[in-house]
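Bug report (template v2)

What were you trying to do?
Predict the complex of my protein with PXL.

What happened?
Run completed; filing so the output is reviewed.

Input:
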Amino acid sequence: MTSIASYTIFSIEGDVFEMTRQKKIAVINDFSGFGRCSLTVSIPIISVTGIQCCPLPTAILSNHTGYEDFFFDDYTDKMQLYYSKWEKLGLHFDGIYSGFLGSERQVEIVEDFIKRFSSDETIVIIDPVMGDDGRIYATLTRELCRRLKKLAAKADIITPNITETCILTGLPYTTQPDAKFLLSASEKLRHMGSRNIVITGINQGNTIGNFIYKEDGTYTLLSTPVAGISRAGTGDVFSSVIAADQVNGIPLESSVKRAAEFVAHAIKLSDEQTIPTQDGICFEKILSELI
Ligand code: PXL
């Protein structure tokens, strides 16, 4: 479990040196300057695990859309110009992680990015951000939904919540999914192509469940006591931990447990400090728990 990959180079004299190369994850998501979500959580979380986080912004916002007002600058037309320079630098990534995508064009760009910057060893983590609490986000058209399904099918790991699981599989939304629902949904998602599935944020009364279904057909439901009220950006924190841990070679079950406990601890701290829920979770002081 390390974020340093070893590789061998040859000097011009023919001597062989063992060198180390720091692992890198490209994160494709928006940059929201306030509200602790998307890139502003992925950058510190991935960095603290020893991996270099390389952001590819989809949009720049003053603050996330959960606030009444925000500045929004779409970055779609600039994304390919931006990563063409990465291509010139010969970059390749150990992990590629994408979050909220606002248009069909952005899905196409992520697909193109994966083709250009991955190898057989690259782990692709797709968080199919489409909705929450049984409601579909307003930006999600029928065609965008179809494209996101196709993208999720190409992932090594997907991290949908229950709402997103229902959108992806066509199963009817339920607030308290049982084991039969989780298994049948996961089998559908696996059949569609996603290799490993983590269904997140399952409401179980006093606990929150995360259901892991792996490519070998084994599955586990991990439960964590409810730590406090639900807050913005927790999905991004959770998926960032999973992305970093998978690139660091941590088993999926241990990683989901780490992510859930980290989120729960940060929610507790945020409630204690009476941080407004839209400001997200204050994880800064406990980042070292992820080292
Ligand atoms: O995943 C949370 C998130 C990310 N990015 C933007 C958002 C939100 C939640 O509202 O508005 C722009």
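What did the reviewer find?
Residues 2 and 203 are 33 Å apart (CA to CA). The chain has eight helices and 13 strands.
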